[in-house]
Design a protein that fits this description.
It contains 12 helices and 25 strands. The strands form 4 sheets. Strands 9, 10, 11, 12, 13, 14, 15, 16 and 17 form a 9-stranded mixed β-sheet that branches. Strands 1, 2, 3, 4, 5, 6, 7 and 8 form an 8-stranded mixed β-sheet that branches. It has helices spanning about 5-15, 15-20, 25-35, 55-60, 75-80, 120-130, 150-160, 175, 240-255, 320-330, 375-390, 440-450; strands at about 45-50, 65-70, 90, 105-110, 130-145, 145-150, 160-170, 185-190, 200-210, 215-220, 230, 235, 265-270, 280-285, 300-310, 335-340, 355, 370, 395-400, 400-405, 410-415, 435, 455-460, 475-480, 485-490. Helix 1 (about 5-15) runs parallel beside helix 5 (about 75-80). By secondary structure, the protein is α/β, with parallel strands linked by helices. A hairpin with a 2-residue loop joins strand 9 (about 200-210) and strand 10 (about 215-220). It starts with a helix and ends in a 7-residue tail after the last strand.
Length: about 500
Amino acid sequence: MTSIDWDALADSFDQEPDHGLLDSAVRMAWAERMRDWLPREPSQVLDLGCGTGTLALLAAEQGHRVTGVDLSPAMAGQARAKLAGRDAEILVGDATRPPVGERTFDVILARHVLWLLPDPGEVLRHWASLLRPGGRFVLIEGVWSGTGLAPARLMEALAPLTERVHYERLSADHELWGRPVDDERYVLVAQAARPGRHTEVVDVHLILRRGDEVLLARRSGTGYGDGLLNGPSGHVEAGEDVRAAMIREADEEIGVELAPDDLKVALVMQHRGPGGGARIGWFFEAEYGRGGEPYNREPQKCSGLSWHPLADLPDDMVAYCRAGLEAYRAGERFLIHRHEDHDPIVYAPDGPARAVPLPATTGGVLHHIELWVPDLPSAEARWGWLLGELGYAPYRRWEHGRSFRRADTYVVIEQSPGMLPGAHDRRAPGLNHLAFHAADRTALDALVARAPEHGWTLLYGDRHPFAGGEDHYAAYLEDPAGYEVELVAEATPVVRL
């Protein structure tokens, strides 16, 4: 039957005694059976092919949180009306591939659904991936006048997916059907395998930097976080390492062909989504321009790409991605981010903080550099551009200063009221210059070409780019206040100038 067929049946569907359970004796009979089939403790129940939501309502009344899925918008509408005010949600979608994203459940409930499908075994294999370890199937089926699904066939399909299957014949319980029946009706309650050694999904996320901006994609048609912004990301596949997975995902999602050397590890996070299992996320950083211009290569999963300031991220983001980017901007390297089941998938500005940074060894690592400048606004324009191009993000602002952070290190520029008069002289005792890594020769050349637009002058132009030696590919820039910066693409031991 098609969804239109089911829509046409929606108004009269509950008139059947075992559909609407309008008779109190029939309703009580189903409630007692459901109490036996479902876990005693409150659980997450996925009701597939939920129809008008009658069994979903019984499960909700018994303290379970129910997610119902039905192909028919009319059926789903009636189910929503029945479950209004309950801890439940009803989704319109195909029960064979329910639109629940990466959520998992304690129970998968289906009544008179599998017999309609051409390959119940394949459907069960997918449903099994939605069950938590130790979860259960509750499958109500039958054989009517030669049509239907024989219990032996269904038990055979369940055998490799579960550790035990309980068969219960329902035909003789006339109160379930509101009348005597002479065909075969039954339920199989099948227990999924108990947890063995702990395993977690590994996924990868791309932080593509364009100065102080990052690239985000708006999810669409995935069943998880649709309508929300998220970074390019995906799962590590069998046989892949995390770097190879990131290269593949970047190509598949945004058409960017990255090389291994284009990627730098930015953050590792253990995450648990609402109602889901734990996973490990590897966040990689890459610079814009590497691998080509990004474009939306998966329009069936993404409605568009957009750039956003790292220091001013939008709220309509997947909370997982938002937590990763905020930790990256703050210089954190390792993070735990675990949702409670009732938390939303979307970032909640006023919600409870779920991110727990884990300290890493930092002894001896440069913490920050502070430069006192004579004119803060002009210094902010020059240094803000240069540091942004080098991957630093705006960090803090106060009346007399600004800071820019990358990983564990930040640079401060400050026009302090306590500054003594006089200009900076890099040749006097004290700081001579700051040196930063450039990504490679191409990136360095691009920075040198644009530097004059932002107030920087190239030093030692007659010897550029080998002013530091024939094997030292670098650029030396100076700003009007007399501060010198060295940008290094390929370096040998420092040559004193």
